[in-house]
Amino acid sequence: MKTCTFIVCFLLSAIASYAAAPSGSYDEKPADVTAADHLNANPAPFTRCIEAEKSDGDGRISPDPNASDGLTRGFRDALDYYVTYMTEVPQAGKYLITLRYFSEQNAQISVSVNNESLTQVELPSSGSWNIAWKEYTFEVNLRASTNSIRIKELPGYNVRQDKTCWTENGPSDPVEEAPGCDYIVKTNVIDLYPSCGQGIGLNVECGQVNCTGITYKWTGPGLDASGNAVSFYAPTQNGTFNYTRTTSKAGCPDQTSDFKLTITDCSQGSYKACVEAENSGGTGPITEDPNASGGKTRGERNKGDYSVFYSVNDVQVEGPHAITFRYYAEANTAINVHINDEVTPYKIELPSSNSWNITPIEYTLVFALKKGFNVIFVKGIPGFSPVRHDKICIEQMPGTPPSCDFTIKAQPSTSSPECGAQLTLTANCTGPDCAGIFYNWSGANGFARYTQNIEVTAPSVHTTDGYNVAAGKDGCAYKNVLVAFTTTGCQPASQPFSTCLEAENSTSNGPLSTDPNASNGQTRGAENNYNYFVDYQVYSVPNAGSFPVTLRYYAGSNAQVSISVNNVVLIPKLNLAPTYSWNIVAREETFYLTLFEGTNTIRIRGLPGAPLRQDKICIGPNQNISTRMAAPGAPELQTDTPSLQAYPNPAPGEFKAVFHLPIGTSGTMRVTDTQGRVWHERGVKGKGAHEERIILPDAPAGIYLLQVKKPDLLETKKILFIR
């Protein structure tokens, strides 16, 4: 045998080493190499796949022979389960994510990279929950080393996640070379001929396949904003004003589109307006009166707590305005007044007009209004003389408005408290005008306090909870901030949520009475007075959603109640069939309510008519109410028009508005924040039952008002946006 020379042996060894080197994607993070070595090696793009069942998430793991590794994450009818995939990449840059999944219909997911802003992705159907899978690819930016990518199904959709694969998107990728510039964008303007200072909503429509990655910039008088949906106030002087929308996409030339607003109704003097009570929403009946300003009023002589919603449009400047109430009252009385979404009402004492229908009286107060649209909510106080409302008039105060240059920030002592733990919420004011600021807090517990710091108890379930702090100052409008935190360390619910609450153990202004036929031997209510309420405190609701609620009660004849959740009226009037007995035979009535995660307060209040004796309520699927029932059932008498609903609530920026608008009529649907800014507005034509989808991807987390204005009623619903 011949011995090889040193040079020949070295060459043979190098060839053998090259043949044994792996090719294709990296399975592990590559070893450090110099820049020159890396360029010379020219490795294949980084690729890695991660199984859903091996990643963190709150979706159920289930076997599936058709899955890539025999397991998946997800289950039908879950509201919003998620999977968090952790991956390490060799270098920062653009990566393609390919999600393998099952979905019986088209679905939508949100994608969050490293806990940053959400991106919404629509997935085409795989046509099956467990047989045929589908893959969908989208692009994200990743940083070098460790990244977390959370993929979360949106409420109302069902997605069963199998795995994800990550591929480095090199410079030769055709997506980078041809970004797709063939798109057409349409601008939607709520009103091209607005009133003076009116709130204006703008949004865009882009229906082509190349609409991803587009950004929008809006400019013009009083407008400098970005996003596909923005709002601003129209100018407060007459004329024609030009606005521009600039559409941009990486690798494409900018596109511009112009529109004009024409304003003709700005007065030369200060703002003045009057609003009739009979033309406003409310719970009080409309009655004729020849002495009233418009020949009609709102009010009921034997009921003190009905309400009137005055809508005030086109206020030209923010600041103090004189509001004059014209009314009738047979004795000195008092009312509660809410301005917009202020947390705590103003208790206003009113002098008597000494008449119910002959001589009206006027009383003027000063309130801070916002520019644009305002709502003034007036409600009678039980125990005071009833008020018959005629109208209100608003006038801008002369002189220089007070300085309101301050900003409010608020934060919890911890953003992730343990279930049931105590935490502190703190508000702080910054800016030159913080002197004289006061704070009011409200949340699921329905409280409001005149303090800068409050102590709260975290819910005993895993949830994201929110509390609102409203900062006020005399002559300035409230400024609102949402403080959010997420509970941790909670035990998962072992069964569907259900609970029963006794009326006698709940807060109420109704007397407590014994009854051997009641579920626990006691009830609340009085036979000679309908105007009692019971506040049922519901703790530890695991998820926001719609729940069946069953009321057990006694009523000698047909009765009516209103039902509210967390101080928001959800059912203005519910008919209850008689039990034909005050204390012998009980009856049940089931209805549905939208509850928040955590703590909720359900108030059931009697309306004019037969008095009601409340026994208890049960919530959820396992109600187990045992009672002797009278017949016929109450649902046979239920003829009321459904009230305005919104779901899901809390919402991730997209929700559905459900309401009733009679055929042949028209109305307006609007979404505003607590500062009065209009985020969405459009007209609707009556077709009976409506279910309207509203998407606000750029609206930040916080409390919003959904309003549907009908010919004879303004309905309002609070919505909490979480991100």
Can you put this structure into words, describing what you see?
The chain is mainly β. The chain folds into six domains: about 45-175, Jelly Rolls (Sandwich), CATH 2.60.120; about 185-265, Immunoglobulins (Immunoglobulin-like); about 270-395, Jelly Rolls (Sandwich), CATH 2.60.120; about 405-480, Immunoglobulin-like, CATH 2.60.40; about 500-635, Jelly Rolls; about 645-720, Immunoglobulin-like (Sandwich), CATH 2.60.40.3080. It is about 5% helix and about 50% strand. The strands form 15 sheets. A five-stranded antiparallel beta sheet has the order 2-5-10-7-8, with no helix packed on it. A five-stranded antiparallel beta sheet has the order 20-23-28-25-26, with no helix packed on it. The chain has a five-stranded antiparallel beta sheet with strand order 37-40-45-42-43, with no helix packed on it. A hairpin with a 2-residue loop joins strand 14 and strand 15. Keywords: Signal. It comes from Dyadobacter arcticus. This is CBM6 domain-containing protein.
